[in-house]
User: Fold this.
Amino acid sequence: MNELALPSNVEAERYVLGACMLSPRAVDDVSEVLKVTDLHDTRHVTAYGAIRRLHDQDKPTDVVSVVDELIRAGELVGNLDAAYLHALTDGVPSSANAGYWADMVREAAIRRHVIEGRAVRHRSRRMPRCPRRM
Assistant:
């Protein structure tokens, strides 16, 4: 299955992450709706995982703290860097809308998970069955 064809809302993911790094309240709102696996972009999955770890430890979730957490975890690699995380916060219209964007990301994730589940079931039907041993 072509991963590019799967439903996602990467723009809403960016807004969610940016809002979470601007406002601890946004993390609370988003955490009620999103799991790490709901995000589609792998950079966003990694960044949201760091934000959630920090939040769960009652630590700040600002960009500097998230960058530090990603470095500590060895996850600040490739095209996920401090400049990218700063850019996420620059593009957020208002952190007050984080819950709305989280709902958008969750809806895309549900559609994606349904499609992925159908693909797995379809592949398993096509696989030959092993003969039973007596």
In short: The domain at 3-125 is CATH 1.10.860.10 (DNAb Helicase; Chain A). The longest helix spans residues 98-126.
